[in-house]
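(Structure overview)
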Amino acid sequence: GRRWRRVELSLQTANDSGDLVMWFWSNLPDTVSACQIADLYRRRWNIEGMFQRLESALESEIKSLGSPKAALLGFASAVLAYNVL
């Protein structure tokens, strides 16, 4: 199997939790640099943050959306609304 490595990212300013260093575990090949891995995580969390802000703004976490079809409809509606805004 592929080996794991820990990537350490030093931040110029503290994140929301007050951390100045972040660590990531990766099993990507050695041809992918630590900087590339950090950039991939940064992009991923920008997207995750967008969905969190979207959910919060639209208050889209509705308990009655427990069925997969209803949850998919709610999610699709939220994405559509975000794109319109």
